[in-house]
Amino acid sequence: MGVIGDLAKGMAVTWGQMVQTIFGKGLVTTQYPKEMREKPQRFHGRHVLNRYPDGMEKCIGCELCAGACPARCIYVRGKENPPDEPVSPGERFGFVYEINMLRCIFCALCVEACPTEAITMTQLFEMSTGNRGDAIYTKDELLVGVDGTPNHMFPDDPLADIGELAKADGWMRATASQGRVAYEGIPGWTPSAGVGLRPPEPGQDRSIETDRDPAQDEEE
Amino acid sequence: MDTVDIVIVLAKAVAAFALLMVVTVLLVWAERKIVADMQNRLGPMRAGPFGILQTVADGLKLFFKEQITPAKSDVAIYLLAPLLAVVPAFLMFLVVPIGRPFNVTLGGQIREISLQAMDLNIGLLYILAISSVAVYAVVLAGWSSGSKYPLLGGVRATAQAISYEAAMGLALVALVVYASISDATADTLSVARIVELQQGTYATAGGSGILNTLAGFVPRWNIIPQFVAFGVFAVAAVAETNRAPFDLVEAEQEIVGGFHTEYSGMRFAMFFLAEYINMFTMSAIAVSLFLGGWSGPFLDSIGGFGATILSLVYFFAKVFVLLFMFIWLRASLPRLRYDQLMQLGWKRLIPTALVWLVASTLVVAWRQFGAPWA
Fold first, then answer.
1. Does B331 touch chain A if contact means CB atoms closer than 8 Å?
2. How far apart are CA A55 and CA B62, in angstroms?
3. In which residue ranges of chain B is pLDDT below 50?
4. Contact B238, B333 (CB under 8 A)
5. Disruptive mutation site among A4, A18, A32 for chain B (greatest number of B CBs within 10 Å)
6. Is A28's CB within 8 Å of B38's CB?
């Protein structure tokens, strides 16, 4: 009976799985373009270049991101800010900013390297293009709008989920944010993509949120 | 045989063709859905409601694909093989009665229309013969492709067909001998006759007692006395149709696509079609021979054309159960190794079928002619 028993055992497994699936349990498929899966909070999607709430660009054209990039996929060329119409609060601004998404490995070392939190990552992952040229994202694609909304590559596409772009990565370096003494040793949460403060992740110290008073920052 | 008869036969042939095509479309879809369910997936969802038109879409795609002929192939045989696969698949179905015959007045006389393209009095031999021809398609496709993997598939088909056809034939002989109990003078090689002999229940007419009442609920199907023959036939049928776990001839993981590796477009589609028609036909034959065919309760009390419709429902319900078994097996079992296949065929199935044939023949002879010493 050994063989017959084993046979019945195997058939019982598939039968059980079938009944389970018919009643909607254990089904792992998501109807992808129609329904989106919730992505992990620190999902590394494509980059954005952020702005300050007043509309100034955060990028100061320092090229640290390009230096940190292990795939050498970032090209930055800085330029002196025009005195009467400055683009960024610093001396210089990112005049040319290109990321070759075909080479990018989405390690986020550029995000860590950035001293002004100008470059962060979003949860957007749909980056297929019809030709190689389109895979090189320039400032036009990377820079968020004045209201902080990231650029969507295909905003007219019926499948485009514009709201998803707002879930930009709020993760920051665990050091003194922007060189401010008050943040020394405190992992900071900053507004990224101009969508305001994000709540701390599970396990994060909730008091950090209240610690950070923008007005107090100004005084220092 | 007048003109009306010829028209009727032609109409039946066309109807059988159409039925098999529709059944294939639905069966491929059903298989994909059921296997998907067993693997916690959804299966085809996009083409039509629940993806039911997926097979049509696939067929259209294959229709427009390029048909490649390998440079080293033996062209004539290479082109013949797909036809040799499809034609026997259709032919085999012709002797299977799918419903209760009904009477209709045509051309000034009452005619009995059987739902069977042709009632051959050698139906079972015909089935065995045609199913042997179908094997040639696989063998010739493998050998004419001029490529190593198809050749391996063809060689496997040769061995597998010989091993399992013998077992299948022996199981059917036991069945035929048993069927002659009811009526020794009848054409017990005719499929329609075998179905007719399975009408009713196992209750003895005029009998009494609790056992007889209980037997009144047991349909007079051949599977009950001939369960071993059914088991052998079922295993051999799966092997004959080259379905998992006996799909060594195509064995994607080992020999790419086996015999159909070098086929593309409609030529591949023909092999595909043949496989599913064979599955359906084998189930239909198993239902007719062992599970009472189109018979079922209430047929006689309804009578007429209504009974024919009901008998069709019974038939297709039974066939679907067997088809589900085919699919279930495919979703559950890993492929047999070549030596395991040979062992199962020669050391298990054929001896079982032989012993069963002798035993059941002795019982039949005893009942027919009395004890040898009497």
1. yes
2. 56
3. none
4. no
5. A18
6. no
How many CB atoms are located within 10 Å of the residue B334 CB? 9
Residue A171's beta-bridge partner residues?
A189
- Written as six digits, the tokens of B151 are 């050749």
Residue A10 has pLDDT above 60, yes or no: yes
Rounded to the nearest angstrom, the gap between the alpha carbon of residue B67 and the centroid of all alpha carbons in its chain is: 30
How far the first Cα of chain A sits from its last, in Å, is 83
The first and second tokens of residue B7, run together, are: 């028209």
Q: Is the pLDDT of residue A174 over 70?
A: no
Range among A25-29, A123-127, A149-153, B234-238 with highest mean pLDDT value: B234-238
Domain ranges of chain B: 3-369
Confidence of residue A75 (pLDDT cuts 50, 70, 90): confident
DSSP A153: S
Asked if B38's CB is within 8 angstroms of A29's CB, the reply is no
Residues 6 or more apart in contact with residue B58 via CB below 8 angstroms: B28
Where do the H-state alpha helices sit in B39-147? Answer: 54-63, 75-93, 123-144
**Farthest CA pair distance, chain B:** 74
Write down the pTM of the prediction. 0.75
Model confidence at A206: pLDDT above 90: no
Where do we find the tokens 């010739």?
B140
Residue B40 to residue A31, Cβ atoms within 8 A: no
Q: Which residues of A touch B331 (CB under 8 A)?
A: 14
Q: How far is CA A186 from the centre of its chain?
A: 21
C-alpha neighbours within 13 Å on the C-beta side of residue A197: 12
For position A45, what pLDDT does the model report?
83
d(CA B172, CA B129): 13
Asked whether A94 and A129 are in contact (CB, 8 A), the reply is: no
SS3 B177: helix
Cα angle: A102, vertex A105, A110; to 5 degrees: 110
* Structure confidence at residue B166 (pLDDT): 86
Residues 6 or more apart whose Cβ sits within 8 Å of residue B211 = none
Cα(B175)–Cα(B177) distance, rounded to whole angstroms? 5
Residue the block writes with tokens 């060189």:
A179
H helices of chain B, where? 3-38, 54-63, 75-93, 123-144, 148-179, 191-197, 210-215, 227-240, 252-255, 265-290, 299-302, 304-332, 338-343, 350-369
Tokens representing A16? 């059980």
